Amino acid sequence: MPNKIPVLVIFAPTATGKTELLLNLFGGSKSAQVISADSMQVYKGMDIGTAKPSLEEREALPHQLIDIKNPCERFSVSEFVQRADALCESLWAGGTLPIICGGTGFYIRAFLLGLPKTPEGDESLREKLKKELLERGKAEMWKELLASDPDSAKKIDPADSYRVLRALEIYRLTGKPRAAFAQSPKLRDRYDFTTIILERDRDDLYKRIEERVDKMFEAGLESEARGLMASFKKEDPGMQAIGYREFFETKDNGSPLSTEEIKERIKRDSKKYAKKQYVFMRGIPGATTIRVSQESDAKADLAKIIAKTRAAQAASPGRGETARSNN
């Protein structure tokens, strides 16, 4: 479409196979780059547990927004949208197709529809909530959110204390649930989106998750996680990621978990997260869902859609002019 930047958007939870599909379609072509929509792959040193693409894979198909933060630093959805916007403009101006790809549906939805107009933060209330978190624990704070704003609570992992506290902050400030500050139902008009949602049969996906976690431990996840634990606290944003937070957990009697128990908890938490992430992709205008039961079929379907996207690119104005017109 004239004066709009074409963006291919691909959402899929962990272990779906999105990286392999993209490498098959774009690897080595230099015609596209991936802007990672993964809230934990931004953290340095967290390689195995976040299933980052390898250096070889990133050389074949460059990925942006990976390894840009330390685990103690916060990375918000607003920062993601801001950075992704800038990258889309610069990539397209240089003749490269931007691909937003990842499993953090919250980020992808915000990129497609824009950020909801929620109230500005209240620093004093935020500090009070942090103290309550230390005194009451994550589970109790999440239960409070469930009672006051059940829709938000069902979308937020109880271990994600940052988002739990933000939702509680909004409710205590306004007396309204976060959903009262509605996100736009329309796609942002600065882009020409092609949005793909990849799905697998649940049993197949869960099997792949279990196999992936087993391989992570074989690759040295425990050593990676315990090395990070020496430098970072369990409250740090990166350390709340699935695959790392479980190493801080203990049994009911306070004794440490065995390696096998940690592994099983990571598998359990990964499955729960995969199921929850699809909630954020419901009702996205124009999105196409592709079943990935057979990788070859999914590749063929994606190739057809991408061919249409490239045809639209060829018919669009000059790339540098397009990017400048959107600034």
Using the CA coordinates, give the radius of gyration.
Answer: 20 Å
Secondary-structure element string: EHEHEHEHHHHHEHHHEHH
Mean pLDDT: 89
Low-confidence stretches: 320-327
Number of strands: 6
What is the makeup of the main sheet?
6 strands, parallel
Separation, N- and C-terminal Cα atoms: 17 Å
> Helix- and strand-based class?
alpha/beta
Helix content: 40-55%
- How many alpha or pi helices? 13
Strand content: 5-15%
Order of the strands making up the biggest sheet: 3-2-4-1-5-6
Shape field: globular
Could you characterize the architecture of this molecule?
This protein is of the alpha/beta class and 327 residues long. The protein contains 13 helices and six strands. Strands 3-2-4-1-5-6 form a six-stranded parallel beta sheet, with helices on both faces. Helix 2 links the parallel strand 2 and strand 3 (63-64). Helix 5 packs across helix 6 (138-148). It is globular, with a radius of gyration of 20 Å. The two termini are 17 Å apart. 35% of the residues are buried. Mean pLDDT is 89; it is low at 320-327.
